[in-house]
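Reopening this ticket.

The earlier resolution said the output was attached, but the attachment link was broken on my side. Pasting everything inline this time so it's all in one place.
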Amino acid sequence: MLVSSALHGNEIAYYSALTISSYAGPGFDDYLDDMRSREGAESAKNNPIIGVSLGIIAEKQLSNSLSTRGELALSARGGGYLLKYEDGRKASTLLSEINLQIPFLIRYTTSIGDNNKLYFIAGPSFSILLINKAFIQDGAEFSMHSFPGTDPTLIGLSAVGGIGVELPFSGKKIFFELRALTELNDSITGYSHAHQRQICFITGIK
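Inline output:
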């Protein structure tokens, strides 16, 4: 994930991330309407979920400022919705996924003082769905179900962009990164223009 001021060939980094994921698009609005009608609710509201990611990065420097990066990460993604009923009852559904993420990114780096780096990343990311479950809290009752209504897409393609800083620390380098991901394909089978969005707050070391 990090680039030094001299060319060192391949470099490896490790990271963890806090993520905020949600569904978006007119197709997900249709999905919410279908869930509201099926459950007899008064309204349905989009409800993002919080998750984590763990990953490893292999980076190849092309110049002092430019590098390519391949990643492999386990990422919690998905979204959720909140149903409200006429009697005041609420039911929250979390559509949780565990994905294998495989981004291929370009990184541009510039210096911001002695040994400190500011960098930008962009590129595509492929995802493979490993596990998906729906967690439903209806009042005091909590249950786990299969994905309600339809199936999620098994293989996805996303666009990734982000900004980060790299700092020296005890002979190593640490980095902090803010990354945004938008899925380019439909996330839910049978609903056009329903895709996932994710914001990642990343920390790592190499």
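Reporter confirms the inline version is readable. The chain has one domain: 10-205. Helices lie at 26-39.
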